[in-house]
Specification:
Layout (H helix, E strand, L loop, with lengths): L5 H29 L5 H7 L2 H21 L7 H9 L3 H4 L7 H24 L3 H15 L5 H10 L12 H11 L9 H5 L3 H22 L5 H10 L9 H21 L4 H5 L1
């Protein structure tokens, strides 16, 4: 029996979105497959910012929805699986399948998570150390202070105020929330901290190192959604009134991180601090 009325429209909408998601996933998968043998240094040297990002992320996205795209169940069971996946789009679907409204809702959810993480860091034991480091970091970004000396004195030295050893469980959980807010899946900070917070933060920091190397050349041509996403992936709160303000913030980020990386190794936790 064919569905009718609103039910039929909903089925058509899901089918159209699923087909569009498969098409986009296939295109991204081809880009990733073409460049599958390239390491981070080769991607930085040979690819554009967008292609390098696709090459990094598409393999995981394809594996995430492989069971759904190549669903062996005959109709109507296969359609039921698709319908169920759209009831839990963030956990069961890749970004290629998300609609505009869903993406906006996910961004707002992540923004709340990031804001809570920032409040926890600034209001916790590290708050005073972060406030004291802020003007020095501004000077480093302007080339008026040495990044290596700052890292040695404030981050890398044993007992330094922003060293890894000074982080509490709550601090590590907050850093994970900044690095990957969607990975907490709405769970509490204590639960997130038990879910390999350090590994998540390290992976996100390594991804940003490659992304930073290509972002500068692409910054002028990024769309509004890409600018907002680039800021969010660096733990920035969405407090910018215009895209030009986002570009300026990202340019300042690149100046700062470039100066710090020239001065020495930047620990993953400090990337998000």
């Amino acid at each position: 029996r064919r569905p009718s009325g609103p039910r039929r429209q909903r089925v058509r909408r899901f089918s159209k979105r699923f087909g569009g998601g498969v098409t986009q996933l296939w295109a991204d998968g081809r880009v990733a497959w073409t460049h599958r043998r390239l390491g981070p240094d080769d991607r930085i040297r040979l690819l554009s910012w967008r292609d390098a990002r696709i090459a990094r992320t598409a393999p995981r996205q394809v594996l995430h929805v492989l069971w759904l795209v190549f669903n062996p169940l005959p109709p109507p069971l296969g359609l039921v699986c698709i319908a169920i996946s759209y009831q839990f789009p963030r956990t069961m679907l890749a970004p290629q399948f998300h609609g505009t409204e869903e993406m906006e809702r996910f961004f707002r959810d992540d923004e709340r998570t990031r804001r809570a993480a920032v409040d926890a860091l600034l209001g916790g034991p590290l708050g005073e150390a972060l406030a004291a480091a802020a003007p020095i970091l501004a000077a480093v970004a302007r080339g008026q202070a040495d990044g290596g000396s700052f890292l040695d004195a404030t981050v890398l030295r044993d007992g330094a105020p922003l060293s890894l050893a000074r982080l509490t469980a709550g601090d590590r959980s907050a850093l994970r929330a900044l690095a990957s807010p969607g990975s907490c899946c709405g769970s509490s900070q204590a639960v997130c901290c038990g879910c390999s917070a350090s590994r998540t933060t390290s992976a996100a920091a390594a991804d940003l190192r490659e992304d930073d190397a290509l972002l500068g050349a692409a910054l002028a041509g990024l769309k509004s959604a890409e600018l907002r996403d680039a800021c969010a992936r660096r733990g920035m709160l969405d407090e910018f009134p215009t895209d030009d303000a986002r570009r300026l913030a990202l340019r300042r980020w690149l100046d700062l991180m470039g100066a710090l990386r020239q001065g020495g190794r930047v620990p993953p936790h400090f990337v998000f601090l």
